[in-house]
Amino acid sequence: MFIAWYWIVLIVLVVVGYFCHMKRYCRAFRQDRDALLEARNKLFRRTGEDSRVARDQE
Predict the structure, then answer these.
(1) Has this prediction a pTM greater than 0.85?
(2) What keywords sit in the KW lines (predicted)?
C-alpha cells in the first residue's frame, strides 16, 4: 500500500515536536527537582545546626 508523502511528513513533524517537548519538559523537571532537593538539604542543615546549638547549651 502506498502512504502519501504528506502523511510521512506529518508523522515526522509530530515525532520531532514530541521529542523537543519532552526534552524541554524533562529539563524543567530536573531543575525543579534540583531546587527542591537544595531547599530540603538547606532545611536539614539548619535543623541540624539548631539541634546542635540546643544540645551545646544543655
Answers:
(1) no
(2) Membrane, Transmembrane, Transmembrane helix
pLDDT tens digits, 11-27: 999 999 999 888 888 88
**C-alpha pair distances (Å), 19 with each of 7, 36, 49, 50:** 18, 26, 45, 46
- Rounded CA-CA distance 30/35 in Å is 9
DSSP structure string for the chain: -PPPHHHHHHHHHHHHHHHHHHHHHHHHHHHHHHHHHHHHHHHHHHHHHHHHHHHHH-
Encode burial over 27-42: b for 16+ CB neighbours within 10 A, e otherwise. eeeeeeeeeeeeeeee
